[in-house]
Amino acid sequence: MNMRERMTNGQLFRINDELMADMLRARKLLRLYNASTEGDWEYRTSILQQLLGSMGEDVFFEPNFRCDYGSQIYIGNHFYANFDCVILDGCPVTIGNHVMLGPQVGIYTASHPIDAKARASMIELGSPVTIGNHVWVGGHTVIKGGVEIGDESVIGSGSVVTKSIPAGVIAVGNPCRVLREITQEDAAIWEERRLQFEREFGLQ
Prior knowledge:
Blueprint: H1 3-8, H2 17-35, H3 41-51, E1 54-55, E2 59-61, E3 65-67, E4 73-75, E5 79-81, E6 85-88, E7 93-95, E8 99-101, E9 106-108, E10 110-111, H4 116-120, E11 125-126, E12 129-131, E13 136-137, E14 142-144, E15 148-149, E16 154-155, E17 160-161, E18 169-172, E19 177-181, H5 184-200
Parallel strand pairs: 1-4, 2-5, 3-6, 4-7, 5-8, 6-9, 7-12, 8-13, 9-14, 12-15, 13-16, 14-17, 16-18
Antiparallel strand pairs: 10-11, 18-19
Helix pairs in contact: 2-3
């Protein structure tokens, strides 16, 4: 098993020439993406298609966006990340459809040994992250390796997500904990507010 395979499978690995070349390739694509102008929609999409492992329709990162490799990031349809998103993707990061990330969200699959001597030897490891469909992650949230976030959940701003979060809940805090379930009452309230908005502006 080579270093790339060890890295993506969550085993101990060390950066070698192959992985360094992949990181430099990602840096170049990110530099081009982050330097692009606000009207360069097709150009930005073409860069993301080269950078990411896979992506669906309507995928957008506000500059600046940073990642390690890009090739371990898999995104569904209708994804939006606000300013200064950072994804450390030594292990796979899988994101579903209709996901929104607030500003300065960090997704960190990478980890390092607790022991200082082992850490100084430059070995590292990681764990994958999975985010389901229709998830909203508030700004300044950190999502650690090994975490899964279930469909339709909301993560409050400033959270540090160290353990998996089930579907259909509001969770917040450091460490992030479930605050409550998202209910049919929430759906009814927001449906009425949406309809009122559309009536007011003649959008129905």
